[in-house]
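To: structure desk
From: M.T.
Subject: fold request, one chain
Message: Could you run this one when you get a chance? Sequence is below, nothing fancy, just the single chain.
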Amino acid sequence: MTATHAIRQSAVSLSSLPNHAGTLVVAQGRHSLMDLEPDYMLGLLARHGCVILRGFSADRGSFERFTQQFAADFVLPMMRVARPKVEGDADAKTAHVDVGSHAMGLHQELSFTPIRPDAIWLLCEKVAGHGGETTIADGVRIYEAMTAALRQIFMTKRLKFRFGSTLDGVAELFHVAPEQLHATLARHAPALTYTQNGNALSFTYLTPAFQKTKFGNATAFANFLLFSQTSAACGHPEAPRVMGMLRFEDDTPIPAGLVAELQAIAEPLVYPIPWEAGDLAFIDNTRMMHGRRGFEAQSDRTVYYRAARSLIAI
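Reply: Done. Structure tokens follow.
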């Protein structure tokens, strides 16, 4: 179903994405991202979970200006080496998403930590020659499609993540000065525990597989499980480490059959975004999970990333 709305005298058409994965907003004529009213955009995000903007001639500068309307604080990926920040951006909080060319399983951004961004934005500057689609799926619909027995497993067993980083990297993630980090981390105990060896920190983090959404307080299956446990099949170069970072809270491994069951539920709900240069995706990270299709190693696919620690109120 398509509708036309006037937003600051800008005509846009709206159409639903397949698999209930969100909505596509296409500019009708010559319009910029700044012609879109923030409250209207947040309303679309609240209703649909993902908003893809097409035809607004978006580039990195307008991407940064647009996102700054929705948040005062942005968070970078913890794995800075894998996804370095882009030098010269307005507030040093834009990163590249391209880590190799392998596929990536569905995940909620930074869900192996207590710092889960409210929302993420992706800007496609250059498309891959073949593949490279960003995948999205509604965690609420995944939860609704799960059997009672499968839900019960996750209601009785939390997920246990083990990961490491540097003191400075974790301080940036928690948005505190390094000297304040230990007091900040203590406030997340007992779910989060850690040890320190010089500048290196090693964490254990317990978290439910189900999360409540920011908008509507619905229950979503939104976590890092599928990314972690399908990393070998996706060709992740560090698959043993990535798969080993997750177990149930009783230290039992995640059964392969359970992962296969979850994949069978999620796959019909996945929508691969057919990127066009200049497209922007606005994703509710409390509801939607995202991933990536593999693409040609020689491709110069370029996608930028920004993440809001918390969104401004509607």
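Reply (cont.): The chain has a mean pLDDT of 91. Let me know if you need anything else for the meeting.
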